[in-house]
């Protein structure tokens, strides 16, 4: 039986009926169905931030606000949540929200097209923070592009918006909104059927496995955060028969610390996993800060990133270098494998029909471990890597006892440098001794040339990053991370 999608907007429950295609984005629904045109379409791929909206959802007994890109968010993913857009911020009498007033006072709008997205990113920051911090404010706005180059007054507005404290009308309405969202809680799988296809949102891993097993192979998509799947619709114009969302499966959103390792569910977003990732290593946290904007990290999941099978997914080399185990599940049962064995060829993985990524188990670096991640890209923020290297060595009295070196951008899949690892093992870990291992990288990889880098650059850069890692570990020289970026 088909059920309507329900979410809260402007204090009212909005019902999405069967006439809304299962691939309609939240941006399209806002502009074409609700006629709320303040939210703009810029890139339709989650890069520019013009379409930024804020979604609030219940986390326990409290509300969590997060900025997301409406252009790659299906409206069906809003079920049980609250949606805020730039059209909603001013009061009924026309009074501006503190964020809007700060933008006006700081002269922070030029052509104005990007302004709604900036306002909503700042609104999410306002709801989640007590005061502005310069670094986190820059991170907050890194996913919003201003073609007029007006960032300085926008940052000024971010500082100014807290001048009157945290009080706004949304704080006064939180109790009512919390009760409203609690009333939208479902106790069974959401099935929304349209003439174009079905949107299915199971509640448990068992229900998810059964649902996938019952669907025709090859004509169903598994949806995690939508940061890739959304582009299949907006850019490739693809329409599947069914979309199966992981968003309601609570068991896939768990993070469990097992002592020497951390288990992260496939439905955990990068934002939710950030503390656990930072606990693994500071370099991992810095890399996650660069792999996408706040909007992307609020939506994208580690499990989805893995299942997508991209050769340039930044997290994959880091996870492989740390010895991550991948846990898969289907109606036939569970299986596990080393993460590096999951990637078979370009965009081809070991995932079987009806199977899904359940979680990953990541080993924590030990006291004798040395670990580092290096990302080379043309831009610092939100750029696809030309090369990403993750190095993990275990030292015993200055010699390499074990090594795991993994790269992205060097082959059709994220991959370990097995010959280089073998050449490195038992060597004294010092610049004068590791050159045989550096040379072995040419045997491990035959990189390609593309718009991001030439094959020659990639190989030389990979070799130099290994040299850099050795220099930093031994203390022979200290090259700042920024120098390699």
From TrEMBL:
Keywords: FAD, Flavoprotein, Iron, Metal-binding, Oxidoreductase. Residues 191-367 form the FAD-binding PCMH-type domain. Gene3D superfamilies: 3.10.20.30, 3.30.465.10, [2Fe-2S]-binding domain, CO dehydrogenase flavoprotein, C-terminal domain, Uridine Diphospho-n-acetylenolpyruvylglucosamine Reductase, domain 2. It comes from Ferrovibrio xuzhouensis. One of its GO terms (molecular function) is xanthine dehydrogenase activity. The keyword Iron applies. This is Xanthine dehydrogenase small subunit. The keyword Iron applies.
